[in-house]
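Summary: Need help interpreting a holo structure output

Steps to reproduce:
1. Submit the protein chain below together with the SMILES for 2-acetamido-2-deoxy-beta-D-glucopyranose.
2. Request a joint structure prediction with the ligand placed.
3. Inspect the structure token block that comes back.

Expected: a single structure record containing both the chain and the bound molecule.
Actual: see attached output.

Input attached:
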Amino acid sequence: MAASRKTALALAFFCFLCCNAFLPTSASSDSFLQCLSSMMPSGLVFQQSSSSFVSVLQSSVQNPKFVTNTTVRPLCIITASDVSHVQAAVRCGRWNGVRLRMRSGGHDYEGLSYRSVQPEVFAVLDLAKLRGVHVIPGEDSAWVDAGTTLGELYYAVGTTNPGFLFPGGACATVGVSGFISGGGIGLMMRKYGVGGDNVVDAKIVNANGDVLDRAGMGEDLFWAIRGGGGESFGVVVAWRVKLSKVPPTVTVVNTIKTLEQGAADVLAKWETIILQPAFVPDLTVRVVLQVRQAFFQTLFLGGCSDLVTTLHNVFPELGVTAADCNEMSWLRAMTFIYFGRTDVPAEALLNRTNNLGNYFKSKSDYVRRPVGKATWESLYQQWLSRNGGGQMILEPHGAAVGGANTLTNSPYPHRRGVLYNIQYGSNWCCDANGTNAAAALGWLNGLYGFMQPFVSSNPREAFANYRDLDLGQNVVGQDGVSSFWSGRVWAQRYFMGNYWRLAAVKSMVDPSDYFRNEQSIPPFR
Ligand SMILES: Cc1cc2nc3c(=O)[nH]c(=O)nc-3n(C[C@H](O)[C@H](O)[C@H](O)COP(=O)(O)OP(=O)(O)OC[C@H]3O[C@@H](n4cnc5c(N)ncnc54)[C@H](O)[C@@H]3O)c2cc1C
Ligand SMILES: *[C@@H]1O[C@H](CO)[C@@H](O)[C@H](O)[C@H]1NC(C)=O
Ligand SMILES: *[C@@H]1O[C@H](CO)[C@@H](O)[C@H](O)[C@H]1NC(C)=O
Ligand SMILES: *[C@@H]1O[C@H](CO)[C@@H](O)[C@H](O)[C@H]1NC(C)=O
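--- attached output ---
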């Protein structure tokens, strides 16, 4: 074994010196698998021949679109349960020219954490076993292992450290790692900023297989991993997240307005108040538009009477009264927001079982000036009321998330002047690439075209966490490295001016472009 490791080391050195390009062959696949088996328990590695391969591969997949028989599958899945397994996977991968796709919660909208668009030899490094939250009562931070879900984090904080919160998203099964590394937006960001703004330390395994904390990786890399995309810089194995104080009681309210009840008027008012000081950071009103209605989801970090007073001043059109309030702990509110019911126990946030029923495709936009009542009306008439499976989710920005994007902030660039993010979604059943898929995608693209005059432009901004391969894919040059100019096409829309700094960080930490996928940050050229 010592001899094979020596050979591997020599090979690694050779590769490092004379070539950036990895040309995976079956021979390198074999030595990759041998390398893994010499460095970790064999029960952690699932090859395609294993009877569990398909179930392990699908364990956290959210979109059946990417479990077809034409989906490009990994050579194997490495289910790391210790940081040393992650180091071994990176080292074996680099020595043998096999790339890794890291997977934490598996929610990537294009499935890039477990599939490749083009035929390629790669391995999935699944981190679901590497999970745990280390919370100390009264402390305003907690270490979270990379494979933890938001629901598991909420549960640990809410039960062990009540009085504190982590400002995450609405969906409990989303992985903390993908959420933070793509920015991370949610119902508490107006008060506390995006997910990436709420990290104080991290541990990453770099392209050499070394484990670095914040001091070891330096501030540039620490900045980049908090919103610059998870796939480009290394494998994050743990985050130290900042926890913030929350009152013992918060208030949630769900309100529905149909078109007949003036949904378009209420939306037209909603979009004009977001940046007003009276729309306080403690107050968030998110909206889901579907068919002929607008569903307003309100979270207020305080009690019902303060909420009713605040809404009466700033947004009386919503018509919320004390009778509409649900007062509860922050943990119960996170449960309510995800499940839509007050009778679901908080333990349900721990359920990681995926539901593979829903074929979907999403796109995103940012709005910087109100679109106005007439546009809301035509949107409903021409688009929403014509597709029962389509919806738009509007997430208000402003307040803390709208501050200037200074060096102390994370790379999330959609800040000052942004009113809200739009997520367009289209759901269908049950073909990955048939007539239903074509109809659903045709609708989505038509809606996206319709909205173009009303949303941000030059660039038309998009949210990195709502990954959309229609925006562009990297082209790999003859030197085996993703081209900076091909990356610019899509990355300027996710990262705006921060693309250049992210690419400069990439040049420093992974110039040979080992950590890459179809939308990873290329090195600066
Ligand atoms: C139902 C649903 C609801 C959502 N709601 C929200 C929301 O409210 N707010 C929001 O901001 N986003 C939301 N998203 C988007 C979500 O944040 C992104 O899809 C995110 O990337 C998912 O993280 P994950 O760990 O589950 O995904 P994965 O598919 O595991 O990973 C996503 C990307 O990150 C990389 N990655 C994963 N783990 C690591 C790691 N440890 N180190 C380095 N790179 C890593 C992967 O390689 C991949 O490129 C939602 C998605 C879904 C499907
Ligand atoms: C792929 O799957 C479809 C339906 O699941 C099936 O009809 C088809 O025969 C499969 N193709 C191959 C090449 O296995
Ligand atoms: C866990 O979630 C899955 C998928 O949504 C669901 O089918 C199942 O019933 C849930 N299990 C429990 C115990 O709630
Ligand atoms: C979908 O089907 C079309 C036409 O049959 C084909 O050209 C295309 O490559 C398919 N796409 C995928 C992702 O399979």
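--- end attachment ---

Reviewer comment: Residues 348, 351, 353, 355 surround 2-acetamido-2-deoxy-beta-D-glucopyranose (ligand 3) (CB under 6 Å). Residues 250-328+356-454 form a domain with the Vanillyl-alcohol Oxidase; Chain A, domain 3 fold (CATH 3.40.462.20).
Status: needs-info
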